[in-house]
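Work Package 4 report. The design task specified in the project plan requires that, given a folded chain encoded as structure tokens, an amino acid be chosen for each position. We show below one input record used in the internal validation round.
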């Protein structure tokens, strides 16, 4: 499976990092090839949220890393085959651009390609509260088949740490792309 992960400049960069970290076991057994784009906005938010984590550390979690301005890179073309794209976290700016087909960087262009090719696209949008603009953009994309997976924790799993909360959303993302062998959260079992 070839995956394209994009990290954009909303709060919650840890969700993107945790997804990449979790994908390493699939990468090692060659189930997954990881392609990565980190927006300039994400690089800035990273310095505020995780001053201890470098951009280079995140880059080595992927097989191929693209510059967000490189509109000639492979994911910009529908002829280049990628199984799923995950934008995690997804800023309201990137969400708006995708909802309006404004493909001005490689992240929004690749998402535009995924929508036209009817491929699996997941967004993990982070903002609070959501305005009507944000909600309308999400509704529009959901109607087009885009998975909208906000990082909203569940509490029936009895999270004890921030890691537990992060892992829950990352696990739900993995489930949606068919990588279900993770142990990121305990699955609901009433009995
Ligand atoms: C510390 C920090 C936190 C931010 N958090 C959010 C957020 O949670 N959601 C959001 O939509 N934008 C957030 N922003 C604003 C985005 O970074 C900004 O709109 C940026 O242009 C997004 O660009 P990108 O989508 O290309 O990464 C934040 C910015 C900073 C500096």
């Amino acid at each position: 499976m070839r995956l394209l992960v994009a990290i954009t400049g909303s709060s919650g960069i840890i969700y993107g990092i945790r997804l990449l970290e979790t994908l390493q076991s699939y990468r090692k057994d060659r189930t997954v090839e990881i392609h990565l784009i980190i927006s300039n906005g994400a690089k800035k938010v990273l310095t505020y949220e995780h001053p201890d984590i470098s951009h280079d550390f995140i880059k080595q979690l992927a097989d191929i890393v693209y510059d967000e301005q490189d509109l000639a890179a492979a994911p910009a073309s529908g002829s280049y085959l990628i199984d799923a794209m995950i934008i995690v976290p997804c800023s309201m700016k990137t969400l708006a651009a995708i909802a309006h087909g404004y493909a001005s960087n490689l992240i929004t262009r690749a998402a535009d390609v995924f929508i036209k090719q009817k491929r699996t696209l997941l967004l993990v949008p982070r903002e609070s509260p959501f305005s009507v603009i944000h909600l309308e953009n999400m509704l529009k994309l959901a109607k087009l088949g885009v998975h909208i997976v906000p990082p909203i924790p569940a509490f029936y799993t009895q999270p004890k740490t921030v890691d537990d909360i992060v892992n829950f959303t990352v696990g739900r993302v993995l489930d949606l792309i068919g990588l279900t062998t993770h142990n990121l959260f305990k699955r609901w079992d009433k009995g």
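Residues 8-11, 39, 41-42, 44-45, 48, 91-94, 126-127 surround flavin mononucleotide (CB under 6 Å). Validation will be extended to a larger panel in the next phase.
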